[in-house]
Amino acid sequence: MSKVEWYTEFVDLNYKPSKTDLIVLFYFEPASGISVNEAIGRIASESSTGTWTTLFKLPSRMKKLMATAYEINKSGSGYFVKVAYPLDLWEPGNAAQLLSGIAGNIFGMKALKNLRLVDVNFPKDYIKHFKGPKNGIQGIRKIMKVKNRPLTGAVPKPKIGFSAKEHAEIAYETWIGGFDLTKDDENLSSTKFNNFYQRVALMTKMRDKVEKETGDRKDALINITHETKEMEKRAKVLHDHGWRYAMIDVVVSGTSSVQTLREKLGDYGMSIHAHRAMHASFDRNPKHGITMSFLAKLMRLIGVDQIHCGTAVGKLVSPRQEVINISNILREQKTKSYRHDLLDQNWYNIKPAFPVASGGLHPGLVPDVLEILGNQCNLLVSGGIHGHPKGTRAGAKATMQAIDAYNSKISLKEYALSHIELRQALEKWGLMKPM
Ligand code: CAP
Ligand code: MG
What we know:
This protein is α/β, with parallel strands linked by helices and 435 residues long. The chain has two domains: 7-127, RuBisCO large subunit, N-terminal domain (Alpha-Beta Plaits); 136-429, TIM Barrel. The chain is 38% helix and 17% strand. The protein contains 17 helices and 15 strands. The strands form three sheets. Strands 7-6-5-15-14-11-9-8 form an eight-stranded parallel β-sheet, with helices on both faces. The protein has a five-stranded mixed β-sheet with strand order 2-3-1-4-10. The relative contact order is 0.11. Bound molecules: 2-carboxyarabinitol-1,5-diphosphate and magnesium ion. Residues 155, 159, 185-186 line the site of magnesium ion.
């Protein structure tokens, strides 16, 4: 039978990528009966110009658009492979089209038992078509007037069910306890018991009250997630009420709406807080899906100012090395490659973004998280303040005391001797790591 497949034409183990190639690192396991070469040929082919069979007509210019699988490394029961993509494959500034290519059909190929998109190196000529964060780390610190410590925030808990009035009252307690931010939860948008527009109005009154009482900058991560036109409308309402952030659930909203809102919020000078709800549906399995570090990289490129990175010690799965990788990708101007988990990345003029540690945190875990992330992060401690024996305000104070203790290089135990709210928090939770 004549040769009907041409996958192996997408493999060249001696290929040297050009500086304009976009490089993708995949982990894969071939299905039984499929050779490594056939597997990597399929990955490179199906994510660029190929299909399953040789074609009647193949204009010679197509060769210039073919991806090339060029470097393989064995790892456990699978392999890592690097694939180089000619830049002309990718529409400038179109994140959704990139995902349709490198994270599309290839995940469904029968020839692969597992496939994981690990990381991407974006060349300068690709990066230059994206805005990156509007304010970034330095810009946010200037706006919020917070210098050398993490910014702190909390979500009212239970995560949904409060009226707009109750929500604003809890925000007041959170802010007066010393926190910078009050955050909507990922599943709060506008409900009959907590209408978005009413919440904004009441939160604005409370913010102005606390800013007057404390002289500190206070703000909120108010969730505008919805259909894109409504998101733009809600962004304008936040801007008109003097808010400096908007929150978007970026995975469920999709890269296209995040790009649209980056334009709109950028015009208002506002920062984007990116919640990553649904990420664990594709990043948790170490053998299949898409890494959180790639999602974080793509979101920094599009232009969120901060995104959740996990905690390594909290209630949600977030391996320590992954938290470190994500925070490096978000904060550094030049990310160094690490084993097979990370490719080099020069960010050129793209501003750094804040990693956000959240999920099962309480004052007793603050040193563990700051050990990993340092002060250049956001700490969201929600159940960990609203569950304090003396309530929200005391819980926020206890968390701020734990941060001060860490930065003064004093143990929590010693610091708690002279700080009652921290002592009360340690009496309830100690150093427990919630499951
Ligand atoms: C945390 C949280 C956050 C998760 C998100 C929640 O509340 O508000 O959404 O942290 O996870 O709903 O669970 P607690 P991640 O502080 O009370 O746990 O940050 O890993 O994306
Ligand atoms: Mg939440």
